[in-house]
Amino acid sequence: MGKIIAVVNQKGGVGKTTTSVNLGAFLAHLGKQVLLVDLDPQANASSGLGIEHSKLEFGIYEALIGQKSIFEVIKRTLQKGYNVAPATVGLAGAGIELVSMENREYLLAELLNQVKNDYDYIIVDGPPSLGLLTINSLVAADEILIPTQSEYYALEGLGQLLATINLIQENLKPELKIMGTVITMFDKRNKLSTSVMEELKKYFPGRVFETVIPRSVRLAEAPSYGRSILQYDAKSAGGRAYEALANEVMSLELLLDTNEK
């Protein structure tokens, strides 16, 4: 039974999609079967894996509204063991159209339950907002991974996100867990980056990943070639960081499984 991880932060530009795409790539590289679900209308995760989303007739949105089955929308990427349920243009209006649907908060959960046994990890790249698509990604998830940029306003948005997560736990999914936060775009030469990291560790005791994702030109370039950093430059600082994050996520799972037994 696969683990569903929602990668969420309602603040844009924090490395959410970069984290989703590259964590998935390295988990697949480490021998896991991985599905990436692109729930962001901008479709950056889809294009970052070489999928020309503007030419697609259907994707995850069409599965959500029942026009297609989840099996019909899943595409293979260039990497073995790594599939994607891509975003299409229709996703942009989903927030409005899903409102009138029955069980609207559970649509993604119901879809992913059909494929959960086929994958070790399902990673959901949510949109940079706290709307219905994000709520769907949280309700579908077993755990939440929060990428946080090491900059001055980073902690401001976290309070709002945590309040939303609490509401989901209280009303829709009590068993939802926060896996942790990963610090992105870190610049060790910048004192502010280091002080934000210290603040985060106080704010999230025991929930900040050891792995820190650096600012990296190679990470920024990779999506324009439709490649993950693993395929584009695995030995770059960004590549090594995401490999370390994938290993850390897997070791956390082992720890959780051991504790639960």
Question: What would you say this structure looks like, in words?
Answer:
The protein is of the alpha/beta class. It has a single domain, classed as P-loop containing nucleotide triphosphate hydrolases (Rossmann fold, 3-Layer(aba) Sandwich), CATH 3.40.50. 43% of the residues lie in helices and 17% in strands. It has twelve helices and eight strands. The protein has an eight-stranded mixed beta sheet with strand order 3-4-2-5-1-6-7-8, with helices on both faces. Strand 7 (177-186), helix 9 (191-203) and strand 8 form a beta-alpha-beta unit. Helix 1 crosses helix 12 and helix 6 runs parallel beside helix 7. The longest helix is centred in the C-terminal third of the chain and has 24 residues, at 237-260. The chain is globular and about 50 Å long. 46% of the residues are buried. The mean pLDDT is 90.
Brief rundown of the structure:
The chain is built from twelve helices and eight strands.
